[in-house]
Amino acid sequence: MAFYKRIKDYKDFEFIDGTTFPYPDKKSKIAQNLRRLRNDIRAQITRQKHDSLVIGSWNIQNFDNGLPRLDESYHYIAEVIDHFDICAIQEVNDDLSGLVRVTKLLGPHWDYFVSDVTLGDGGNSERMAFVYNTNKVFFRNLIGEVIPEGDTIARNPFFASFQAGWFRFTLCSSHVTFDGNLNKRRAEILAVSNVLEKRASKQRDVFIFLGDMNIKENDDTVFQQMRANGWDVRDFENTTTGKSSSAYDKINFTKDVNRVEHLNHGKYDWRNSVFREQDKSFYETIKFAQRGKGFGDHHMSDYRHWYSLEMSDHFPIWLELETDYSDAYLEEIENG
C-alpha cells in the first residue's frame, strides 16, 4: 500500500521553481481524490488469482523533465503503480527526482532500475525504468539493452530478468521512435522481437516485450507477424488521452517455448478519478503559476494538454499472468 503520511505535512499552497501560489484545502482535496482513485482502480484492475503476477507498462510523459508537476500528481502516479507488482516506465528523463519521489511514496518494499540517458537524434534524452514490489518480485541479476545486429535504434530497449513464485521472466521495455516512417517502426519492433524469440528458445524464461510501440492499429501487420512467430499479442483499445483512437501501448509475451498462462489484462483510465472534466474550473485557479516554464499560454488553456503533463498522455496498461506451475512440474516428474 502506498504511503500517505506525507499528505498531512502539506500546507495550503504549492511551491514550484521559486513561485508560491495558494491551493485551498490541499490536504483534504488530495485525500478525497486518492480515495476515489483507489476505489476506481480496485474496480478496474482486477486479479483473477491472489498469487498471480500483475505487470504494468506506462509511458509517463516527460517524467520528470517537463512542466513542474503538482505535489498531488506524484501521489496519483504512485497509487496506480502500487496496484501492479512490477511496472515498466517509458519516457523517464535525465532528472530522476520524479521517479525517486514516486518510489519513496510506494514504500520501502519497492525498488527500481533505470537505464542511462539515450543521446543522439531520436533519443530525446530518455531513460526507461522498472519499478517493482520486492515482496512479490525479485531481481535475478541480469540487466542490459537489446541491440539487434546491424540495426540502429534510437532508444535501445531495456531488459531485466525477474522471478515471481515459480515464474521466471524477462521484461524488455521499448519506446519506439515516432516518426513519419511506419515501416521503420515495424522493422524495429520485428528486429527486437526476433532477438527475444531466439533467447526464449534457449532459456527457460518467458520474454515479455512491452511499452510504447507507436503503432496506432491493433491489427497492424507487425503484430500479425509477431503472432505468426509465436507471440501472444494482447490488444489494448485507445491507450492515449488524445481524441483519436490510438493503441500505441502493448504487452506481448513468448508462449510456445515456455510455460505461461494468461489470466487477465486491461488499461486504466485515471480520468474517471483525478483531473476530471468537472474539476477543470478548480484547476484553472491553480495552474496559472506554471506558465513561463517553457510552456505557453495556449498549452495552459488546453485542459487536456495540461493534465497530460501532470499525469501523462498515455494510460497505463496491465497484464496478469499465473505464477504457480508446481502442479505441472510435479506431473512432469511423475510421468518421467
Q: Which term fits the overall shape?
A: globular
Radius of gyration using CA atoms only: 20 Å
Annotation field: number of helices = 9
- Return the string of H and E elements: EEHEHEHEEEEEHEHEEEHHHEH
Portion of residues in beta strands equals: 25-35%
CATH class group: Alpha Beta
Give the biggest beta sheet: 6 strands, mixed
Provide structural commentary:
- The protein is α+β, with helices and mostly antiparallel strands and 336 residues long.
- It has a single domain, classed as Endonuclease/exonuclease/phosphatase (Deoxyribonuclease I, Chain A), CATH 3.60.10.10.
- The chain is 29% helix and 27% strand.
- It contains nine helices and 14 strands.
- It has helices at 26-44, 71-81, 97-106, 182-202, 221-228, 280-284, 297-301, 303-310, 326-334; strands at 13-16, 19-22, 53-63, 86-93, 110-114, 126-133, 138-145, 158-164, 167-175, 206-212, 231-233, 249-254, 262-267, 317-321.
- The strands form three sheets. It has a six-stranded mixed beta sheet, covered by helices on one side.
- α4 (182-202) links the parallel β9 (167-175) and β10.
- α1 (26-44) runs parallel beside α2 (71-81) and α4 runs parallel beside α5.
- The longest helix has 21 residues, at 182-202.
- The protein is globular and about 70 Å long.
- It starts with 12 loop residues before the first strand and ends with a helix.
Short description:
The chain has nine helices and 14 strands. With 336 residues, it is α+β, with helices and mostly antiparallel strands.
